[in-house]
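Subject: for your reference before the review

Hello V.,

The reviewers asked for a structural picture of the protein, and I figured it would be easier to keep everything in one thread rather than splitting it across files. Below is the amino acid sequence we used in the manuscript, unchanged from the supplementary table.
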Amino acid sequence: MGEQQDDSIIIENFSNFLSANGKRKTPERFKILDRVLEFKKQFTIEDLKIAMLDENFPVSQSTLYYTMDLLVDAKILHKIKTTDNAVAYERIEHVGFIHLNCEHCGKTKLVKDTGFMAYMNARKFAAFTSSYYTLNIYGICNDCARKIKRERMNKKNKSKKVT
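And here is what came back from the structure prediction:
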């Protein structure tokens, strides 16, 4: 859990998934998958749509949504809710990582904690077999904390000058 797979294996697995489920292997689906595999962190449909347009490969909104559902069903992507209740996606192999989510700027940093991962992989739950896990920690990143501190200091200094 948490190790990155070779992209060619993921593409082959998706092709096999489509065949096994009687779905067509369209160029659009594989182009979307190629672009999805370039994302190294969480992304939204809007991020993907922009990326597809940047490559001059526009696809319909419905094709994007349907392909994303197929990629989730094929266990290539994981669908998550972001801090602002939007829907985002990330590669399944990233779900074993700890996600540090800044509530101020919205950035997410993936952290690999091998001790925590070993602990979670060894856990047994009564009447339940886990496939994967994700841990989200919410707070403020160092960049935002410094920015907030500077803003507070500037306000404090301005109020001293006024009095």
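For the response letter, the relevant points are probably these. The two ends are 59 Å apart (CA to CA). Helices lie at 7-20, 27-38, 45-54, 61-73, 114-122, 142-162.

Happy to draft the paragraph if you're swamped.

O.
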